[in-house]
Specification:
Helix content is 23%, strand content 15%. The longest helix has 9 residues, at 87-95. The protein has one domain (2-106). It starts with a strand and ends with a strand. The chain is globular, with a radius of gyration of 15 Å. A 3-stranded antiparallel sheet has the order 2-4-3. The protein has a two-stranded antiparallel ribbon with strand order 1-5. The protein has helices at 22-27, 30-34, 77-81, 87-95, and strands at residues 2-4, 18-20, 36-37, 49-52, 103-106.
């Protein structure tokens, strides 16, 4: 199995829209305080808050100056599912002007 290791480019936090659920906001209260609550007609079972894009922000508001997530341990589920090296990761890197994320190693299972 191919393994990728995130190199901390931050492209994922400045390329695609980021939405969070009510459960995410319960786990991390800053989401409700600092994100934009979606209008009732735009909410889904999964999405209640918008974290990116937001006016006057070039990245998700939780991305620090070193491209690290300030709420990593309590980050939204959508961020937890985003995998280093996935097609979406590679597309974010391409759009951000980064090269493709290289494979870190191969792991063989018996």
């Amino acid at each position: 199995m191919t393994q990728f290791t995130c190199d901390g480019c931050g492209a994922c936090c400045r390329t695609f829209p980021i939405f969070a659920s009510a459960d995410d906001a319960e786990r991390e209260p800053r989401i409700a305080r600092e994100g934009r609550e979606l209008a009732t007609h735009l909410r889904t079972a999964d999405w209640r808050f918008q974290l990116y894009p937001l006016p006057f922000r070039e990245t998700c508001g939780f991305l620090d100056s070193e491209n690290r997530c300030e709420i990593y341990d309590s980050r939204p589920d959508v961020c937890r599912r985003f995998e280093a090296g996935s097609p979406q990761c590679q597309e974010a890197r391409r759009r951000g002007g980064f090269g493709e994320l290289e494979k870190s190693e191969s792991v063989f299972s018996s």
